[in-house]
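note to self — DONT lose this again. spent like an hour looking for the file last time. sequence + predicted structure for the chain T wanted, 87 res
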Amino acid sequence: MSGRRERIEAALRAAFAPDVLEVVDDSHRHAGHEGARDGRGHFSVRIRSPAFASMTALARHRAIYAALGDMMQTDIHALSIDAAAQS
């Protein structure tokens, strides 16, 4: 898996074993955007995992950022997150 979307998906699957995971590369919609000029992308994530059951929305977002680690600095400019414990 060499693509950014695939690496994001692999990291989230490894960290949360989600029941539902959709990662969409929205970068094409932001072509020319100043923040996209450095080559990092815009992504949307929809994830449902039992691992989020006891977490607040803020804690879920922080856990996702932590799971993505360095990719937040090297590959991802913007990340839209829809995270919940249930579908």
